[in-house]
Amino acid sequence: ACHPYEPFKCPGDGICISIQYLCDGAPDCQDGYDEDSRLCTAAKRPPVEETASFLQSLLASHGPNYLEKLFGTKARDTLKPLGGVEKVAIALSESQTIEDFGAALHLMRSDLEHLRSVFMAVENGDLGMLKSIGIKDSELGDVKFFLEKLVKTGFLD
């Protein structure tokens, strides 16, 4: 087990390092895992569990095809064609950009462009766009907050 002041254990070699050395530009794990782009992106994003819980709550409240409004036709049946809620949550956490997200989940170009337009609407404060795809007034705040977190960590770059 690692000491509390060095809580991060490198998966390859078992070396324990301080959190401050994660994603600092200098590899501290022998295999460089502490500088892995997916790890560093995920460190800036909401936790996978939080994202999965948010997506699951939308599906539970609105039915298994609700996220089709954001992710396109492959998001039917509780995201099963995309690999399920957990896989989508991981992809949102680890994908540096929306392009990486689309590639990870094999989204069609049209669905990816739709998703990009949703994110750009959020970035520009255009809540009318969210309403036009069926996001209810009572959900606008939560959906906007969630999408803004991704935008602020470079998802659209």
Radius of gyration from the CA trace? 17 Å
Q: Number of helical runs?
A: 9
| Outline | elongated
Please give the largest β-sheet. 2 strands, antiparallel
Approximate helicity band = 40-55%
Order of helices and strands: EEHHHHHHHHH
What would the average pLDDT be, to the nearest integer? 90
Low-confidence sequence ranges? none
Strand content: under 5%
Q: What is the domain tally?
A: 2
Number of strands: 2
Class by alpha and beta content:
mainly alpha
Q: How far apart lie the N and C ends? A: 38 Å
Spatial strand sequence of the major β-sheet:
1-2
General description of the model:
The protein is an all-alpha fold and 157 residues long. It has helices at residues 37-44, 48-62, 68-71, 76-79, 85-94, 98-104, 109-123, 127-132, 137-152, and strands at residues 8-9, 16-17. The chain is built from nine helices and two strands. 54% of the residues lie in helices and 3% in strands. The model has no long low-confidence stretch (mean pLDDT 90). The chain has two domains: 1-35, Low-density Lipoprotein Receptor, CATH 4.10.400; 44-152, no CATH class. Strands 1-2 form a two-stranded antiparallel sheet. A hairpin with a 6-residue loop joins strand 1 and strand 2. The longest helix is centred in the C-terminal third of the chain and has 16 residues, at 137-152. Helix 2 (48-62) packs across helix 5 (85-94).
